[in-house]
Design goal:
The structure is a single chain. By secondary structure, the chain is mainly α. It has one domain. The protein has 5 helices and no strands. Helix 3 packs parallel to helix 5. About 30% of the residues are buried.
Amino acid sequence: MRKKSNVKSVKAPSLTIVAVTTIVFALFIAVILPRVSAYTSANIGGLGSPDTDFLYSGRRLYTIADSYGAGGRRLYVILRWTFDLLWPMAYALFLVSWTRWLAAWYKKPWVKQLFWIPVAAMLFDYLENILVTIVMLMFPKPLYALGKMVSVAGLAKWSTLSVAFVVVLVLGMGAIIIKLQRRKG
């Protein structure tokens, strides 16, 4: 006799929800991200943005912060708490909706819990933003341990975000195979 799983099933979103989150994600990628990036480059300058690096040291973070100047650091913090509140929500909703919708094709209960991966990516993104904000506001006081924590949060964000996209691709390919097998059977 099979033991019933304690994992609660999560209802799949409608295709309309999946479409809306996909459109919002596409708008961010095609329109909003390029504009924010251009605005940031023009008004902050410096050595780039730490939250786009996969891995960096605390010293690198302080070098970037120094290159911004006081006004650039202030603007960077403002952007983290305006635009960068919305962007992680946009990519997380896109990935969660696709993961949940595709997971509905599978019988294994654990597959239906994979939507937590993009949620974790979003949370790591927010943690990174909080830590970078503290560094920017406290600059030039050296908080290198905090800089290392920022690096770990950034690495965790990019790793879980990458895994989340791979999960969607694998679930999508698997759903296609399942659908083709059902047609044959």
